Amino acid sequence: MGKKNQRGIDRRDILKFASGLPAMALLPFPHQATAVASVWPSATGASNAQPPHPHALDPHQWHTLRVLCDLILPADANSGSAGEAGVPEFIDDWLSLKPGLLSDQFRGGLTWLDWQCQKAFGFQFLDCPPARQKEMLDRIAYPGRARPADYAGVEFFNRLRDLVVSGFFTSRMGVRGLRYQGNEPQASWNGCPPAVLELLHLNEL
Questions:
Q1: Is residue 43 part of a domain?
Q2: Fewer CB atoms < 10 Å away: N or C end of the chain?
Q3: From its phi and psi, is residue 173 left (phi > 0), alpha (psi between -120 and 50) or beta?
Q4: Which residues contact 25 (CB under 8 A, 6 or more apart)?
């Protein structure tokens, strides 16, 4: 599906990063993120466009994040995917506001994913076929059955999944998918529909 990664991951970076984090911390990331002054809209506005420069992630990390977001919340019959809702931008904005250990751990989680895919399949996560990507995520998506050796990946993926769901369901697309009508003006109010009253056992009150 792609050319075998030639960059590899510098072992000196791994040792330097790992020594600066708690025991549960994730592996290090190979590239420094570049902060930019431009402002990119968060997930409150859906967009298919990519920001000219991510705020907290390098290009490889950014692309990996976008793929992960769409794997966690793909498009369905009701709405578009997390990527279409602007969730990667929301997460990148969030990380830019959380400098330090938390951001380092998140970026380290992306590198942990690449490192494990390289060990298991010979490719970084982005270059793996979809079936291999799913296989890797299945290892860390279910804390109750994950291997102790994958604890760092489980911590990362659960944090990422929380952010994806939070970003999506606070976006315009996500709110529309919930069919929430509370913020829309109504020409008239005829009361709660009889079927809903019956379902809630309120029709006899």
A1: yes
A2: C
A3: alpha
A4: 18, 105, 108, 152
Q: Which of 137, 114, 136, 140 minimizes the C-alpha distance to 126?
A: 114
At residue 182, the 3 state secondary structure works out as coil
H/E run at residue 200: none
Report the interhelical angle of 59-72 vs 130-140 (nearest 10°).
Answer: 80
The identity of residue 123, as a single letter, is F
Q: What is the pLDDT of residues 4-52, one digit of tens each?
A: 444 444 433 433 333 333 333 333 333 333 332 233 333 334 444 555 5
**170/27: higher pLDDT:** 170
Angstrom distance (rounded) from CA 157 to CA 154: 5
Q: Is residue 105 part of a domain?
A: yes
One-letter amino acid at 78 equals: N
- Angle between helical axes of 151-168 and 101-121 (0-180°, round to 10): 120
Does the predicted TM-score (pTM) go above 0.90?
no
Whether the Cβ atoms of residue 26 and residue 111 lie closer than 8 Å to each other: yes
